[in-house]
Amino acid sequence: MRKRATAREVADAAGVSKWTVIRAFTPGASIAEESKRKVLEAAAALNYTPNLLARSLATNSTHQVAVFVDDFANPQKLPFLETLTERLQAEGLVAVLININTHFDHVHALLHADQRQVDAVILFGTAFRSETLNDLQFGRGTPPMFVLARDSQIEGVPAVTCDAELALREIVDHLFERGYRRPGFMTGATVLSTALRRRQHFVDFWGEKGVDDVAVFSAEKYSAEAGAEAVRGYLKETDPADRVDVLMCENDILALGAMDEIRDRFGLRVPEDMAVVGFDNYELCGSSAYSLTTYEQPRDEMVEVIVGIITGRLEPETVTLPGTLVVRNST
């Protein structure tokens, strides 16, 4: 590999000190215009760029933010990641994406992130078990953690999330006004869905309206295939007269898979025979093939807040933001 030019070589070529070279590439640093011109000309001739890794040793900041994701099957993750990485980069930060899976769990990922000296960690997924993370005794100097798009169940770790209580109240009010009285709820994997709190709010708000019998069943994971399989099992096992008249799914991907199964395999009409509701407002929800009623999270605002916390402009505290109910033909 070709050897990189060093700050010392640029300094010699420009006839200045090494520290003048460093100041020339440090935003806001005090340096004479003529000295800066000489440095930049010499740097261009030598194809020199600053070594950010070396600079991080002096500044105690790597300008890297680790983002942990564990449910890539959910395509709604992509718009969030696009917005998040764009805002981080606008702040001069770089996102380090870490895939949480059976071979690389959260504990390994956190230790890995700590060793790389990232400035912060964003937990962006569903399978973050508080009892596991709380066992890690991170001390002084370890990166702060934040949760994005779900509740934090980890003491001392703030979250930026959509207001699930407000969202589910609006959804249940809408369904009740439309005349539905036999509600059902499909979760993702039961052990993972508790942090979203959508199922509990859904059940509680129906109870306030005098409807205590809410059918609840689970998909194995957050995917269209899992949603189809879960509703298939429910419809096969349930007498038509006892079936729900509206099915709320924990996210849109489950809802889209459920709708395909309800209509294509069982020949039922949506919403006449069974209404369906999702959560997230994924792009396909608005297509004529689905026209799915759903709830849109305030993605841009949530990202803006978490980036503000990471950069120090905002206090590190849990923030819940209101979303928007999007009513379409599926209800």
Automatic annotation (TrEMBL):
HTH lacI-type domain segment(s): 5-59
Pfam families attached to this UniProt entry: LacI, Peripla_BP_3
Top-rank lineage group of the source organism: Bacteria
Keywords: DNA-binding, Transcription, Transcription regulation
GO molecular function: DNA-binding transcription factor activity; transcription cis-regulatory region binding
SUPFAM superfamilies membership: lambda repressor-like DNA-binding domains, Periplasmic binding protein-like I
Name of the protein in question: LacI family transcriptional regulator
Organism field: Sinorhizobium alkalisoli
Higher taxonomy: Bacteria, Pseudomonadati, Pseudomonadota, Alphaproteobacteria, Hyphomicrobiales
